[in-house]
């Protein structure tokens, strides 16, 4: 990693340490396809039940790259590399694990810990309502929608993917992700998108639903 030069823009020592760590993490080879597994240094534990999925580590790691690039644009190649690696992992099966495995109503909805009930579920719905974080693909009236980008739900998944793609374009000025790319890559469940295509599709969903788009099916997040 390049050293700072007195008199030129720089980021502080703590930020440089974070950049070194994230660059090493993003460029360590692993495989996010269904028949493999992300490297253990990617987090799928923090924030249960809503945020304990690998993709949260991806897009939340992307924010710093845009901020750092504004401070030290001469390092944009490093920032672009990190963002490109984050974006590619986002196209894998494990980035959409919850949407692809949490089908129908949660069979454990009557076994939630007290802290989930107190934080997320009104008393009169307990035992018969899915916690936020359960995606519920397949429930009526939407039915099974295996492509999480095209689906009526999965707002968080595709919305945050757009953040990563947008930051990559902002930092690199490279139109790479506007070329068709594959997502999920699980046999027949393989879907082709572009950055602009994802954005246009989500814009149509927002415009057709003034109340907002679903994250988990049955749950709209108005923010």
Give a description of the structure.
This protein has one domain (13-208). The N and C termini lie far apart (38 Å). The chain is mainly α and 223 residues long. The model has no long low-confidence stretch (mean pLDDT 93). The longest helix has 18 residues, at 54-71. Helices cover 41% and strands 5% of the residues. Helix 3 (76-90) packs antiparallel against helix 6.
Q: Features of this protein?
A:
about 220 residues, mainly alpha, two-stranded antiparallel ribbon, about 40% helix, globular
Label the structural class.
mainly alpha
Number of domains: 1
Strand content: under 5%
Give a short account of the largest sheet: 2 strands, antiparallel
- Calculate Rg over CA atoms: 19 Å
Task: Estimate the global geometry from the Cα principal axes.
Answer: globular
Give me the side-by-side strand order of the main sheet: 1-2
Average pLDDT score: 93
Helices, by number, come to 7
What's the helix-strand series? HHHHHHEEH
DSSP E strands, number: 2
Low-confidence stretches: none
Could you estimate the helical fraction of the residues in percent? Answer: 40-55%
